[in-house]
């Protein structure tokens, strides 16, 4: 039975040492996974039972043929990631195609000469760039907003990230590094859209209420703290810090 499976696919999923039983378990798990996806797309009411069957088959296979099931799951995760990116790309192009058919490349062109490469297109000065009620559309506001947000994010996060890395690697003690470094790695694994949502919903209102409306000192403590870390990270200061820790 194994001879009917192509050698490359058999080695990828089953490894070098494979048995007929492992192929059977992997095949059943793969078929139930495909059935789960199809039922979810066409008959969602039966998707949950099929998912339960897939989980049960995978659990049995994990006990009997753990290596083969692990290979199958990692393969499914890899293929799912590639397919997700591909579907998102196809959806974006298919959704944007009617707009380009209707308006052409005018969506990407500045209608008339503007100061600073059309930066005023981002500002709410008029409705010459974006007015859906009058069928006026343009990608310039979104493009410039993306550029501006990216520049501001790099200006804020770049120095803080650099100084934080210097602090963790050069200044912090070993005990402190054991607590800080895992936390930083966990934070780095969270998608940036989550931070953006939290900042928009929580931090944005807090800053406006606490700092901007009352015209008090805003984010200068962040700059002061970052500068202090940079000063402490210099070679001479680092030597003094280590000497003080020895005492």
Describe this structure as you would to a colleague.
The chain is 73% helix and 0% strand. With 247 residues, it is mostly helical. The chain folds into 2 domains: 2-94; 139-246, no CATH class. The radius of gyration is 28 Å and the shape is flat. The longest helix is centred in the middle third of the chain and has 38 residues, at 66-103.
**How is the main sheet built?**
none
What is the tally of beta strands? Answer: 0
Shape: flat
Helix/strand order, N-terminal first: HHHHHHHHH
**How far apart are the termini?**
72 Å
Please estimate the helix content.
Answer: over 70%
How many structural domains does the protein architecture include?
A: 2
Helix/strand-derived category reads mainly alpha
Instruction: Bin the strand percentage.
Output: under 5%
Radius of gyration: 28 Å
What's the average pLDDT?
73
Number of helices: 9
Low-pLDDT regions: 214-226, 243-247
């Amino acid at each position: 039975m194994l001879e009917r499976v192509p050698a490359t696919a058999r080695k990828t999923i089953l490894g070098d040492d494979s048995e007929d039983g492992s192929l059977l378990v992997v095949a059943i798990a793969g078929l139930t996974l495909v059935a789960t996806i199809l039922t979810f797309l066409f008959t969602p009411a039966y998707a949950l039972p099929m998912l339960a069957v897939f989980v049960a088959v995978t659990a049995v296979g994990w006990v009997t043929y753990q290596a083969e099931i692990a290979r199958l799951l990692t393969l499914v995760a890899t293929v799912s990631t590639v397919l997700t990116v591909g579907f998102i790309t196809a959806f974006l192009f298919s959704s944007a195609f009617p707009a380009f058919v209707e308006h052409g490349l005018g969506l990407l062109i500045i209608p008339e000469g503007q100061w600073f490469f059309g930066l005023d297109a981002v500002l709410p000065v008029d409705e010459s760039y974006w007015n859906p009620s009058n069928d006026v559309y343009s990608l310039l506001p979104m493009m410039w907003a993306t550029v501006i947000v990216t520049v501001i994010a790099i200006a804020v996060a770049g120095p803080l990230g650099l100084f934080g890395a210097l602090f963790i690697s050069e200044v912090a003690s070993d005990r402190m590094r054991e607590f800080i470094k895992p936390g930083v790695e966990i934070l780095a694994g969270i998608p940036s859209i989550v931070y953006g949502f939290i900042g928009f919903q929580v931090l944005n209102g807090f800053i406006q209420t606490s700092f901007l409306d009352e015209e008090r000192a805003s984010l200068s403590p962040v700059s002061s703290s970052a500068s202090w870390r940079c000063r402490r990270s210099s070679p001479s200061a680092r030597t003094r810090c280590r000497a003080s820790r020895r005492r």
